[in-house]
Specification:
6-stranded parallel β-sheet, 2 domains, alpha/beta
Length: 399
């Protein structure tokens, strides 16, 4: 991959352009954007592609972040090719105008990959936040696994959330000097949002009685779960609700038509199943904080749940976050109806098993990731003499 060389800013303040487009990216980049804005050594700029429109805007509003550029690429039934082409085309003029010293991207979306490529075409340094996550399977998750691999090659600075992610990058040949272990920024965002005295604004959530019902949030939206797998997941949700009268399933229905069609066909009218539009981030995060456990195919939930002490049943066959599996807070259950149902009933009926998963030590972050990323940027641009401290995961709690 070549040797790491310190960067040189072309102006008195380092101009950092953060580019993101989806709700998960916005949540995880918000702490970094805010930390950059608070440091006088940086000129923080933000460009959003709006790959997700409404869900993205909710997060920007919550964290009080104003985008300097809104590329507004979202279209009905857009394909991955559509997203990538429009993002590349519209980011070009932004990069020409801003001429940033570094472009920061996050994770594994089409926006992330397109932004890294657009910056590379203009010989602009790319910094990859949440770098190094791998399943080792080309098409799982699709297309996120390949997006991450491609961005790692394009990036000169990689901010790995954990030591495991760093080792993945080192095995691929990335110079150790350019890899920084920071923790995951999802934990930063979560700790700034979840409060025990939080009052829900959604009428539906305001009416929930968490003292008399065990509330189980559900979300399923990943492309590999479309089609028959989504059907199986929804059938499991329905059966859990039917067989467990004290349980309330709160299903956040993603706007993707592939998800909505199946969820409403299988679950509309089911007892103790609430089909909801996606909640604003602050509502969803505080719902997770009060949940009994979570059923999800989300990457972010795997990062958030250990801090909240909530077990997660992961609707996937592989995960790029093996630390959560090792800590015992996440269980891979796939998408087959019987497997999801059985895993849920074990959590509901076996208190010992539930407690073994409800751990509070988070191997993925400690709330200081954004600070470490900014400190790493200061070091890389010669503004600080020493590398920043690295995130060291806490040991899992014993049973």
């Amino acid at each position: 991959m070549g040797e790491f060389r310190p960067k040189t800013a072309r102006r008195p303040r380092v101009r950092a352009l953060s580019v993101f487009g989806t709700r998960p990216e916005a949540v995880k980049m918000a702490p970094v954007v805010l930390a950059l804005a608070a440091d006088p050594a940086f000129e923080s700029r933000v460009a959003v592609t709006a790959q997700h429109r409404q869900m993205l805007d909710q997060v920007l509003s919550h964290f009080q972040i104003r985008s300097h550029y809104d590329l507004d690429i979202m279209r009905p039934a857009q394909t991955l090719t559509d997203i990538t082409v429009r993002a590349l085309e519209r980011l070009g003029p932004v990069l020409e105008r801003e001429s940033p010293d570094i472009v920061l991207v996050h994770g594994d979306t089409a926006t992330t990959c397109a932004a890294a490529l657009a910056a590379f075409y203009r010989r602009i340094t790319v910094g990859h936040v949440e770098a190094g996550l791998r399943t080792g399977e080309r098409y799982a998750p699709f297309p996120e696994e390949m997006n991450r691999r491609l961005v790692a090659v394009l990036a000169e600075l990689n901010f790995a959330p954990t030591p495991v992610a760093r080792e993945n990058l080192l095995r691929e040949g990335h110079p150790a000097e350019a890899v920084f272990v920071t923790g995951n920024t999802a934990v930063d965002a979560l700790l700034a949002t979840v409060r025990p005295d939080y009052r829900f604004k959604s009428p539906l959530l305001c009416d929930l009685d968490f003292s008399s019902r065990r509330v189980v949030p559900v979300e399923a939206h990943r492309r590999e779960n479309h089609g028959p797998r989504m059907e199986s997941i929804c059938q499991a949700v329905r059966q859990i609700a039917v067989d467990c009268p004290d349980v309330l399933m709160v299903f956040s229905v993603h706007p993707n038509p592939e998800v909505r069609r199946v969820a409403h066909r299988v679950l509309a009218g089911a007892p103790r199943v609430l089909l909801c539009e996606p909640f604003p981030y602050q509502e969803w995060a505080n719902l997770l904080g009060r949940a009994h456990f979570i059923i999800s195919d989300s990457g972010g939930v795997q990062e958030e749940a250990p801090t909240l002490g909530k077990p997660v049943l992961l609707l996937r066959d592989v995960t790029e976050r093996p630390e959560a599996l090792a800590a015992g807070t996440v269980e891979l259950v796939g998408a087959e109806t019987g497997a999801v149902y059985a895993a849920a009933l074990r959590l509901l009926r076996d208190p010992g098993h539930y407690q073994s998963m409800a751990r509070t030590s988070n191997p993925l972050g400690d709330g200081q990731a954004a600070r470490r990323i900014v400190a790493a940027l200061r070091y890389c641009f010669g503004l600080s003499p020493a590398r920043p401290d690295e995130f060291v995961p806490a040991r899992p709690n014993s049973d």
